[in-house]
Amino acid sequence: MHLRPYRNQDANAIAAIKARCDLADPLVLFYRRTSSPDTQQKGDDKRWRAHVKSTRRALCLEILMPGNVCWVLVLDDEDVEAINNHQNQQNKKPKHSSRTTNDETVAGFTIWSRFGSSDMARRWQGHGEKLTTRAKAFLSHMNLSIQYPFDSSIDRPRMAQFIRHLKTGPSPGPLEKERWELEAMYIHPLYQRRGFGGKALEWGIERAQQEDVRIWVWSTDAGKPLYLKNGFDEVGKVDFGGMIPDSEGVTVSVMVWGI
Ligand SMILES: CC(C)(COP(=O)(O)OP(=O)(O)OC[C@H]1O[C@@H](n2cnc3c(N)ncnc32)[C@H](O)[C@@H]1OP(=O)(O)O)[C@@H](O)C(=O)NCCC(=O)NCCS
């Protein structure tokens, strides 16, 4: 597996990966009207397509924001062989997923965001490209104000409730101005627990070490073991147990690397 910078033709692949992962995330399922593409119920396909389309639009805009960097994880031949052998041993039909037009298999992606006003931060934010930065800020505004009203896959009152609850959580204290944040970390369910998430984190940890800053991430319960294993500490937690039906123990953890 290797990492390479995001290209526009990866948009469908990364949206499909995030949408797949969302199906196992109780927090996303709280505010999204979606259903699995694998079920055969009437209308499911339409809901699934709306979910992927909405996810794609949100990701494409997020990737454009000043300071944001997206990496995709591409499988190498030996990964594909190892995965197919493993599936053969288990008598499962080998599957591939998330291919791009170049016939590569995209297994996951990360989006990192550099905050701050140091020379280094400004370099990541494209300082000096004023027009581009303004255009990106405008798109960001449009994303927040216009995306959801026309998005049939979002239950807006529930989404507002989710965001309100997230904001009322215990504050982790003042954030450092100079920092990296991990905005997205998704590995396709077919390729999880093969060390790819850990490899994807390495890029950010190396950057943070070189720039002498911390990394912050608001982690799902699914992500927490990965961050703990890679040197992050939990500094705060928001409990969603009371808000989402049958969701006792569902939390978002504030994790920091570099303390
Ligand atoms: C969380 C996620 C990114 C982990 O990616 P991954 O490629 O499966 O992680 P790795 O294989 O690199 O795991 C490294 C270590 O993290 C820990 N870990 C990862 N997933 C775990 C799980 N489900 N349960 C327990 N430990 C886990 C283990 O210690 C693992 O090492 P091991 O397999 O040798 O025991 C992936 O499961 C995912 O995309 N989940 C859905 C989206 C999500 O929740 N993203 C996090 C958003 S903050």
From TrEMBL:
Gene3D superfamilies listed in its UniProt record: 3.40.630.30
Residue ranges of domain N-acetyltransferase in the record: 110-257
Pfam families per the UniProt record, alphabetical: Acetyltransf_1 (PF00583)
GO MF term (any one): acyltransferase activity, transferring groups other than amino-acyl groups
Domain of life: Eukaryota
UniProt xrefs under InterPro entries: Acyl_CoA_acyltransferase, GNAT_dom, Trichothecene_AcTrans
PROSITE patterns in alphabetical order: GNAT (PS51186)
Protein name listed in UniProt: N-acetyltransferase domain-containing protein
Organism: Talaromyces rugulosus
